[in-house]
Design brief:
Thrombin, subunit H, mainly beta, five-stranded antiparallel sheet, 1 helix, single chain, 2 domains, globular, 239 residues
C-alpha cells in the first residue's frame, strides 16, 4: 500500500502535521520557525531557504548551491541547527532557478513510503524588446522537468526522471479566497486560519505579519510580526 504524504501548506511555507510549528520565509527569504500555539518566533536562519517538509523533530528545506543547482538541508526543528545536507541537484544551465515558485520555475516535495521526493519544472521564453518572428520565438523556447529521490541520511540524490517538454500537472493547491487588501495569503490548518499580511508603517517600512484566527467567529488568537523591511525592498511576493 502506497503511503504518500504531501506537505502541509502554511502561508509562504509548510506546517508540522502535529500542529506545533510552522516554517515560512521572511522578506529576505530566510526560514523562520513559528510556535503555532503562541505565535512566538522560535528561530531564524541566516541564509535564504525554502521550507519543504516538516516531520517530527526535523524540517527539510531547499537552498541554492550554485547558479543552476539546489541542495536539500535537514534542520533541527528545535533550534534550526543544520543536521545534514544533500548532494547538489544540478539543473539545466538555462533554467532561472529560484527558491520561490515563479512562472519559469516551480518546486514540489512529498514523502512516499518513508522516502523523500522532489519534483521541479523549468521553462524559458523569449523576453526581448521588439516582437520577434516565429523562428526566434521557437529557438528561445525551453521546457524541462524532473523528479528525484533524496536520501536525507546519506545526502545522495537519485534522478528518477529528467525530460524535455511540459511538466506533469502538480497536485491542486487549494487556497481560500479572501478580500482584505493587506492579506497576501491564507491557509486553513487544524482549527485555525492563518493569514500572511504586509503592513506599511511609519517611515515607509513594511512589516510582514502572521495572524491566527478562528475561522467561524473571526476572533484573532494571536498576531506576530515576522520581520520589518525598509521601503527599498518590495512587499513579499505571493508564494
Amino acid at each position: 500500500m502506497t503511503g504518500r504524504i504531501a506537505q502541509a501548506r502554511f502561508p509562504r511555507g509548510v506546517a508540522d502535521p502535529s500542529g506545533e510549528r510552522a516554517y515560512l520565509r521572511d522578506q529576505a527569504g530566510r526560514l523562520v520557525a513559528l510556535d503555532l500555539q503562541s505565535g512566538n518566533v522560535l528561530w531564524r536562519t541566516t541564509a535564504p531557504m525554502r521550507p519543504l517538509l516538516a516531520r517530527d523533530d526535523k524540517v527539510s528545506a531547499m537552498r541554492l548551491a550554485g547558479p543552476h543547482a539546489l541542495e536539500v538541508v535537514v534542520l533541527d526543528a528545535a533550534n534550526g541547527r543544520e543536521l545534514n545536507r544533500s548532494n547538489p541537484l544540478v539543473l539545466p544551465d538555462w533554467a532561472n532557478v529560484s527558491l520561490q515558485d515563479t512562472p519559469d520555475f516551480t518546486l514540489y516535495a512529498e514523502e512516499e513510503n518513508g522516502a523523500f521526493f522532489l519534483r521541479w519544472s523549468a521553462r524559458k521564453r523569449y523576453r526581448g524588446g521588439a516582437a520577434p518572428n516565429a523562428k526566434i520565438l521557437e529557438a528561445a523556447r525551453r521546457d524541462a522537468w524532473g523528479r528525484a529521490r533524496v536520501n536525507l541520511a546519506t545526502g545522495e540524490i537519485e534522478e528518477l526522471s529528467n525530460a524535455a517538454g511540459a511538466a506533469p500537472e502538480p497536485p491542486p493547491d487549494e487556497n481560500p479566497a479572501f478580500s482584505t487588501p493587506d492579506v497576501l495569503e491564507q491557509r486553513d490548518f487544524g482549527d485555525k486560519s492563518f493569514q500572511l499580511l504586509a503592513r506599511n508603517i511609519a517611515g515607509g517600512a513594511v512589516q510582514m505579519l502572521v495572524r491566527a484566527l478562528d475561522p467561524k467567529s473571526g476572533r484573532v488568537a494571536w498576531e506576530t510580526i515576522v520581520d520589518e523591511a525598509s521601503a527599498q525592498r518590495p512587499k513579499p511576493p505571493r508564494p
